[in-house]
Design a protein that fits this description.
- By secondary structure, the protein is α/β, with parallel strands linked by helices.
- The protein folds into 2 domains: about 35-125 and about 150-255, Aldehyde Dehydrogenase, Chain A, domain 1; about 260-450, Aldehyde Dehydrogenase, Chain A, domain 2.
- The chain is about 40% helix and about 20% strand.
- The protein is built from 16 helices and 20 strands.
- The strands form 5 sheets. The protein has a 7-stranded mixed sheet, with helices on both faces. A 6-stranded mixed sheet has the order 7-6-5-8-9-19, sandwiched between helices.
- Strand 13 (about 370-375), helix 12 (about 380-385) and strand 14 (about 390-395) form a beta-alpha-beta unit.
- Helix 3 crosses helix 4 (about 100-125).
- About 50% of the residues are buried.
């Protein structure tokens, strides 16, 4: 793409064609510098891309699981061999440390390719159904999973590969073609992946990248056969309403306000380390980040002391070489204002800032890693998604109060409980209104590809991973085959009184008698 300023992150366009006149700017949030001017596709251009993808899809599906898996693994090799370009691109557009993007986005993409290449056939194999109905005697029933056609993936800005290209992987392995609309804030890594797809010999047009802003995403919803969206709850509701006009399926991973419960018998040192890691990673810009902590009174002060010490030691700044910094920038320009508002609201209502608490001066968008105490549910920081490097900690009397407060939320994505009593920990986890729960851990469950990961409430619909994570990209077809049968069955015309009486007696015999104990 000739408009990219830095040659290290330059990529040939795939779908986002250079001849498109209208463009938008991409900046490095850690420096404020423009790094690219990217084509902005209008509705007609998106429709044309979907048409191309739809024409390519039958041939892609016909290749079969084995050949699709071979091509996907070749792409994985391309990603590894080009890892410096991919890392540099993610660092430049996201303002994140290189260590972080290597360990999350790139690792996840490579691991996901291997998993779905291996398990797609298993999850989508034909299912033989055994029916209890006497009408099914002599008949065979098979349920098959077939690709929906063109999957539209609309990705977020916080993890450009994990939650954009990462969603395309199972969709492609299921035999769909994919049109991916990355966030306008961080589009470059997915354009780069599009280049890799071409270089690895994928059939033309099975994976296309549609760069643009809101109009581009809306046009994709109007044209694709299924939508996978990751982003805010507000936008997710709009996409669902728009998709309902066409009655196409959607899968949504939306906001989160994940609770983290520390019981009095917990390993406090481990709990503090996990809380800091998964509240501050990617500057807290994670859907399932630790966003609020409830600590039983006997260990509250010890936990706070450890967390404050650890957060205070974190190094923040523009990305450099691996190991140079811990915390990067706030990627999305309006997000830093949300973080500032939440902290101010909490302080105005009586919370204490134990470390951090303000925007860092200088170039780029940085908010200091922050710990708050003395918080309660009258404060936005405990009820609304902050999506920043802020960890509010609340003192609670017992596990019951912690569970009640944890469930006092419209979100329900991930959750965590810390205790040395594993039975008690699992019991508490089962009481949490969240799609996922960890005992003595947090967030790392997202990397268990075998298990579904989805939210409840306003955290979304559908799930990633597991059988659900690939079957959602398929429609089901049930096939009934009559292997043998008489020329005329008892249920066929003409109606006769004796047949009606026979079925009536059969109903009484089967279901009308009280069973003996």
């Amino acid at each position: 793409m000739s408009a990219v300023v830095d040659p290290q992150i330059a990529a040939k366009p795939n779908g986002a064609l250079d001849e498109v006149a209208r463009r938008f700017e991409v900046e490095n949030p850690a420096t404020g510098e423009a790094i690219a001017h990217v084509p902005e596709l209008d509705a007609a251009a998106v429709a044309a891309l979907v048409d191309r993808a739809r024409a390519a899809q039958p041939g892609w599906a016909a290749l079969g699981f084995e050949r699709r898996g071979e091509l996907m693994r070749e792409l994985r090799r391309w990603i590894v061999l080009n890892r410096k370009r991919v890392v540099d691109t993610l660092v430049a557009e996201g303002g994140r440390p290189p260590d972080e993007v290597l360990q999350t986005d790139i690792w996840y993409a490579c691991d996901a390719i291997g998993f779905w290449s291996k398990h797609a056939r298993e999850y989508l194999a034909d299912e033989r159904i055994r029916s209890s109905s006497p009408f099914m005697l002599g008949k065979r029933i098979v349920v098959r999973h077939r690709p929906v056609g063109v999957v539209g993936v609309i990705g977020p800005w916080n993890y450009p590969l994990v939650n954009s290209f990462g969603d395309a992987i199972p969709a492609l392995m299921a035999g769909n073609s994919v049109v991916l609309k990355p966030s306008e804030v961080t589009p470059l890594a997915n354009v780069l992946i599009g280049e890799g797809v071409e270089e690895c010999g994928f059939p033309a047009d099975v994976f296309l990248v549609a760069t643009g802003r809101g109009e581009t995403g809306s046009a994709l919803v109007d044209n694709a056969d299924m939508i996978m969206f990751t982003g805010s709850t507000r936008t997710g509701k709009k996409i669902m309403a728009q998709a309902a006009e066409r009655l196409i399926p959607v899968s949504l991973e939306l906001g989160g306000k994940d609770p983290f419960i520390v019981l009095s018998d917990a390993d406090v040192e481990r709990a503090a380390n996990v809380a800091v890691q998964w509240s501050m990673s990617n500057s807290g810009q994670i859907c399932q980040a630790v966003e609020r902590v409830y600590v039983e009174e006997p260990v509250h002060d010890e936990f706070v002391s450890k967390v404050v010490e650890k957060v205070g030691a974190l190094r923040q700044g523009a990305a450099s070489e691996a190991g140079g910094v811990d915390i990067g920038a706030i990627t999305f320009p309006p997000q830093i204002e949300v973080v500032e508002r939440h902290v101010k609201d909490a302080v105005d209502k009586g919370a204490s800032v134990r470390v951090g608490g303000k925007r860092r001066p200088g170039p780029g968008r940085f908010y200091e890693p922050t710990v708050l105490t003395g918080v309660d549910h009258s404060m936005e920081v405990m009820t609304d998604e902050t999506f920043g490097p802020v960890l509010p900690i609340m003192r609670v009397r017992d596990a019951d109060e912690a569970v009640r407060l944890a469930n006092d939320s419209r979100y329900g994505l991930n959750s965590a409980v810390f205790t040395k009593d594993l039975g008690k920990g699992e019991s508490v986890a089962r009481r949490l209104d969240a799609g996922n729960a960890c005992v003595n851990d947090a967030l790392i469950n997202y990397f268990a590809f075998e298990a579904p990961f989805g939210g409840t409430g306003e955290s979304g619909l559908g799930a990633r991973h597991g059988a659900q994570g690939i079957r959602k990209y398929c429609s089901t077809q049930t096939i009934l085959v009559t292997r043998f049968g008489p020329k005329r069955e008892p249920t066929m015309y003409p109606n006769r009184a004796w047949k009606s009486k026979l079925f009536e007696r059969l109903m009484v015999l089967m279901w009308g008698r009280r069973k003996r104990r």
